[in-house]
Design goal:
Layout: H1 2-18, H2 52-65, H3 69-84, H4 89-103, H5 107-120, H6 125-137, H7 141-154, H8 159-171, H9 175-188, H10 195-207
């Protein structure tokens, strides 16, 4: 049980790291000793205004059609970059301060900063996503699930949030819902690492082995 929990914690951190676009192998991180875990990335400065929906639609199509892992990771990084675009200078500053707080292991301070971003710009998906991750790290599954729901309302294709949902369901023992969430994540991003192994194991447990 403890091994599974350590795996899930590392997976959760990796999902947040993936939001940088600088570490696109979001689910490939291995368990590292305390103090050696990779730091959360900065939110990028505001990018030129573009047609966000059309860009994301194109990129999600490219992600599914990617011929290999390298190509897929490049596309995935571009998706994360769009998701992380801050909607205002104030939001960018608060996100930077939240990152600094997390790096200093001041999780409660980071959560309060993310609270402020969400109140200011409830449309900013990654503030919800990061807060969900921090709640998860505090074992506050109820609040984490509530934030994941807000992410998925705004972006049903958010494979990081879907994978996070699967991890929480798996930890609370709802393996059927965990399997469903993982499958949805893979349907959006077939190139997620580690998740196929979880799907295979859960499929055998929930639906039985193939005859």
């Amino acid at each position: 049980m403890a091994v599974r929990f350590r795996f899930a914690r590392t997976l959760c951190l990796a999902l947040v790291l993936g939001t940088a676009g600088l570490a696109p192998a979001a689910l490939a991180q291995q368990v590292e000793p305390p103090g050696k875990q990779k730091k959360l990335p900065e939110a990028p400065s505001k990018l030129p205004k573009v047609d966000r929906s059309k860009n994301l639609d194109f990129l999600f199509g490219a992600l599914k059609a990617a011929p290999d892992e390298v190509s897929a990771k490049h596309v995935e990084a571009r998706i994360w970059a769009i998701w992380l675009q801050t909607p205002s200078d104030t939001a960018a500053l608060l996100m930077s301060r939240a990152k600094t707080a997390v790096d200093a292991k001041k999780i409660d301070v980071a959560i309060k900063l993310l609270d402020s971003i969400i109140k200011l710009r409830p449309d900013y998906i990654e503030a919800w996503n990061r807060r969900a991750t921090l709640y998860y790290m505090q074992n506050d599954y109820g609040r984490s699930l509530a934030d994941i729901q807000q992410v998925l309302i705004r972006e049903p294709r958010h494979f990081g949030a879907l994978a996070g949902l699967g991890m929480i369901m798996q930890e609370v023992g709802d393996e059927r819902r965990a399997l469903e969430a993982y499958r949805k994540a893979l349907a959006v991003n077939p190139h997620l690492e580690k998740i196929p192994d979880q799907v295979k194991a859960l499929t055998e447990k929930v639906e039985g082995r193939d005859i």
